[in-house]
Write a structure and sequence with these properties.
By secondary structure, this protein is mostly helical. The protein has 5 helices and no strands. Helix 1 (about 10-20) runs parallel beside helix 3 (about 40-55), helix 2 runs antiparallel to helix 3 (about 40-55) and helix 3 (about 40-55) runs antiparallel to helix 4. The longest helix is centred in the last third of the chain and has 15 residues, at about 60-70. It is globular. It starts with 9 loop residues before the first helix and ends with a helix.
């Protein structure tokens, strides 16, 4: 039998909880840890960008949004990519 990988890494889940509790800096640290353990996850980049933006670290947010768009392609129909492109266009 095949054992599937985790649906969502624990650090991403913890980061989401920190965001919901209004602590984007702690959330960002968890999302960055998640990326170090399981790199190049779409939601990891998106969540890290969101947390960085909410924490006021616009340079990090820009980097994470850029990586996200490059990873999936600028022509993606995903609303998260459109959000990333809007953020990048405003910078």
């Amino acid at each position: 039998p095949v054992t599937p990988g985790p649906i969502k890494p624990a650090h991403e889940l913890l980061g989401e909880m920190h965001l919901e509790l209004g602590d984007p800096a702690a959330a960002l640290a968890e999302f960055e840890t998640a990326q170090a353990i399981e790199p190049n996850r779409f939601w990891g980049w998106y969540d890290a960008a969101q947390a960085a933006e909410q924490a006021g670290d616009l340079e990090k947010a820009k980097g994470y949004y850029t990586t996200l768009v490059e990873m999936v392609g600028a022509d993606s129909a995903r609303p998260e990519v459109a959000e990333a492109q809007a953020f990048l266009a405003a910078q």
